[in-house]
Amino acid sequence: MSTAFNPAKRLQIDGKATFDGIALVNNGDIIEKPLFAYKPVKLGAGRVRNLKTVIGYQFTVPVVATLASLMPIYKKWAKVRYGHCVAPRPIEIASLDATANTFTSVAHGLTTSDSVNVHWDGTIPSTTPALDTSEVYTATATDADTLTLTTTSGTPTLVDITSATLNTGLWVAKQDQLVIAERNTRVRTFLNVVPVELPSLVFNGAELQWEGNFVFRCFPKLGATAAGGTAGFYTSSNAAFTSPTWAGTEDITASDMTAAWASGLTSNLETSFRCEKGMKVSFKPNLSDMDDGVFSGTSAVLTGFDVEATGMPIGLLDSEFATLLPPTQGAQVTGANLVLTATGITVTLYDAQVLEGEQRFSSENALTGDLVFKAMGNSTTDNKPPFLVA
Length: 390
Fold this sequence. Notes:
globular, 5% helix, single chain, 7-stranded antiparallel beta sheet, 30 strands, 11-stranded antiparallel beta sheet
């Protein structure tokens, strides 16, 4: 099949990108490249040839953005359970109203005319016409927490809920959009986009900022197949280019930053402590491509989420740090929440454990080096995510 993309392409430096309605500005080249796979095609006489086909696109966007602008993306990630499909993005339905024919999901984030699919666990909810995983529905947001669904195939028909009983899980899935505008006025809109790499959040005594890139993966849009060509992944249009309005950097002033690790151990880390060079929180989603039997092509499923915080406590001696370990030295220390607080933001790592601890054995500098805390919180137990941003 043909594609208009080179293996890797740098967009012009002052292109801009928006994701899920959130404006991002790059501080460097945006790089895009297609993702290929090989599918066996049977020929005559038992011969087989591999067909090279595009199965998605990947975008690397160097981000310079305000703290507030990226918070919705991180809060969304913190709420997603392991095992949930994240491309297309699932919105869980909490209840049904058979009188108003509405589906309730608090702060669902959908707008009228959004295209969605539905999927469920176990018994299908009772509606007329019956819900269908292959149907593309038009969502109508009746308010911030409720919505109705209308079929799009044939004559558009409002989904009539005949029973308000919700026996098992029910989700509607939206096509998240990544919009990239270039200086040549070309605008490309990619659907079914999921971040596969997130910037780190850096705390220190004066600034609070993002560090690193956003890397996105684009999957086939609803109703398309992986072999459907570039039209299955994006649409293009011409539009007037508007340069980003941000300054060169967007730092957030933090008057103070503290960290607290309440583990039940009697040590300097049990109460609030400060870090010599601040603390860096890194987020790494672990995704798996799979055919979920609902969406055409593949979907991304969140199989894990690693969240780590690294920092060097001020004045913590090796001897003091060593008291953290006995009598459990060499064993797993019971984790407790690590709470990082700066002006306007709090990040909690659930069930954080000391993953690594650098000790410096010298008479001149016998202080503990960087400590690495890893969130062990599991969203499949006690409904706790690995981290929470507030």
